[in-house]
Design a protein that fits this description.
Length: 70
Amino acid sequence: MARDIIRWVTYAEQQRDALPSEGRRKLDALLNRLADDPYGQGTYDKRTELWRAVFGRAASVRVAAPSIAA
């Protein structure tokens, strides 16, 4: 099965790079799961066409991926 590609906008890259190491590890783990199985992670909001997935205790990431929208 093909693996999806994670691409970052500059502002999101800067936020990711500023995370403490534990937060970065948790984010990387979530993004790996998203790349392997985007449909199996998080929830999809049809109105905004964004996926939302939680990592760590309360942090979340929103992914713009209309091409994988259900």
